[in-house]
Amino acid sequence: MQPTSHAFKQNAHEALENPVLQEALGGIRTGWQAARGRAAGALPEFEQLRDTGRDIKNHVLAHLDLYLEAFTAKVEEAGGKVHWARDAAEARTIVLELCREADARTVTKSKSMIAEEIGLNPWLEANDVKPVETDLGEYIIQLAGQPPSHLVGPAVHMTKDEVSDLFHKHHGGERLEEGGALVGEARRVLRQRYLEADVGITGANFLVAETGSIITVTNEGNAELTQGLPRTHICIASIEKIVPTMEDAFTLLRLLARSATGQEFSAYTTVMTGPKREEDLDGPREFHLVLLDNGRSKMVGSAFQEMLRCIRCGACMNHCPVYLAAGGHAYGWVYVGPMGSVLTPQFVGIEEAHPLPNASTFCGRCEEVCPVRIPLPKLMRHWREEQFNRQLNPPAARYGLALWGFVARRPRLYRLATGMAVGAMRLLGGRQGRMRRLPLAGGWTGTRDMPAPQGPTFMQAWKKRRGAGS
Predict the structure, then answer these.
(1) Which of 267, 297, 327 is the last residue in one of the domains?
(2) pLDDT value at position 470?
(3) Taking all residues of the chain, what is their mean pLDDT, rounded to a whole number?
(4) What range(s) does the 4Fe-4S ferredoxin-type domain occupy (predicted)?
(5) Is the pLDDT of residue 267 over 80?
(6) Do 336 and 238 share a domain, yes or no?
(7) What's the confidence (pLDDT) of residue 58?
(8) Same domain, 328 and 264
(9) CA 128 to CA 449: how far, in whole Å?
(10) Going along 357-435, which residue ranges are E strands?
(11) Does residue 399 lie in a domain region?
């Protein structure tokens, strides 16, 4: 996927003017957002569990090299093979070589953000290997030729009518209207794909160093069929997915489902260790794990290390007012919402993604709901500082900040300037008390009115309060 993060503002304007998208995004508030609140409230130890999850991830990142070595040894002991990939290009090459060794023409895939990150599907298609997405949301957007717009619900931006039109176009037959019928249609089509696939490719929610196991989480059972039916199973995962023990993994799983969809546990949680053994009734004959770095080792010990705690639940975007207004595609790359505003500059460069750290009101909801307490506003602020230092902001913004800094360091001038600004805005607001247009504030008034200030300035009110108190 070619990044378009530099065009976030334009992407967001188009999203705000799309009534179908706005209807689809509205369902997140009444769906996942509300469900997360109920699930967290129903678990008395939820806040303590968040602290534990944070500590587990911090411990792993402090000893990442040791746990990666331990995990690799356990995978190989169980009969699997581990392949190390420094970047996206190396990971794609490894996967393609494994597919060719298996003489694969068709591969099934369960949902994997790492596969999206490295651009795996276009690469396989360009090399005569047909990938078939088996997650319902991923299957829908594959038919639509679109990238995912959410970590958990890739097609959350689409309405049922749009999906109905899409299935009718690609599957033919009678146009289906009901959600259950659409799911049944996808199941009918995909069932044969599972049986035809030569290779199954999955991601992993967690990698357990204690046992060399991978853990996948789905609500459809598609990961189980993808990894269990073909002769060869390839798992692609990033290095920070490691956890020390199975107990640690299940601690994080208790956080994952509640934070993502409001479930106590996802419908399918599968632990897989190595390829099929002689006594096993089914399973792949070969198991390969591709471990991707892609810049993550450089994040360890940096100002952005805390971002590596992310367990990809999507809670931050479910509660973000910017994401809920603009949707995922506005962010212009694989990772979206507040977590994407931190990760995307890391992977594609701040020069390409410099608008994203500014795509936040800094209301703090993302940090408030993060299951492993990632300080997302703080990390976005780091990127804003880097953006300013590299002079990536528009000149008007830089000069405006410089002027504000000059005034703010001079209290008398600051009080005079704010008093004059408040008076002018009251006049512009008129009887209605709001402004349709305001110089230097077109980003606000382009989509909504600006309320005119009421009452005294803060400093005037504070002075009066102190005077009354004395």
Answers:
(1) 297
(2) 52
(3) 93
(4) 301-330
(5) yes
(6) no
(7) 98
(8) no
(9) 53
(10) 434-435
(11) no
| Separation CA 21–CA 23 (nearest Å) | 5
398 belongs to a structural domain: no
Cβ neighbours for 313, distance < 8 A, ≥ 6 positions apart: 151, 152, 255, 256, 259, 260, 371
Domain identity same for 18 and 96:
no
Whether residues 332 and 453 fall in one domain: no
Are the C-beta atoms of 240 and 71 separated by less than 8 Å?
no
Q: Alpha-carbon distance 285 to 150, whole Å?
A: 33
DSSP output for 149-192 = SSSS-TTTTS-HHHHHHHHHHHH-SSPP-SHHHHHHHHHHHHHH
Give the residue from 393, 423, 442 where a domain finishes: 393
On whether both 220 and 331 belong to a single domain, the answer is no
By the 8 A CB rule, do 91 and 85 touch?
A: yes
Q: Domain range spanning residue 9?
A: 1-42+314-393
- Tell me, yes or no, whether 307 lies in a domain: no
CATH of the domain at 132: 3.40.50.10420
Residue 469 confidence (pLDDT) above 80: no
CB-CB neighbours of 234 under 10 Å: 27
Predicted model pTM:
0.90
372 and 281 share a domain? no
Total residues belonging to the chain: 470
pLDDT reading at 468 higher than 70 = no
375 within a domain of the structure (yes/no): yes
Q: Which residue matches tokens 């290390």?
A: 305
What is the per-residue pLDDT for 38?
96
For the cut 70, the answer to whether the pLDDT of residue 135 exceeds it is yes
Average pLDDT over residues 112-140: 96
Burial 132-163 (b: 16+ CB within 10 A, else e): bbbbbbbbbbbbbeebbbbbbbbbbbbeeebb
Q: Are 95 and 184 in a shared domain? A: yes
Give the Cα separation of 338 and 294 in Å (integer): 20
Q: Which two tokens stand for residue 190?
A: 């995909």
User: How would you classify the pairing of strands 213-218 and 268-272?
Assistant: antiparallel
Q: How confident is the model at residue 393 (pLDDT cuts 50, 70, 90)?
A: confident
Number of domains in the chain: 3
pLDDT of 120 reads 97
Give 345-379 pLDDT, tens digit per residue: 999 999 999 999 999 999 999 999 999 999 999 99
Same structural domain for residues 27 and 114?
no
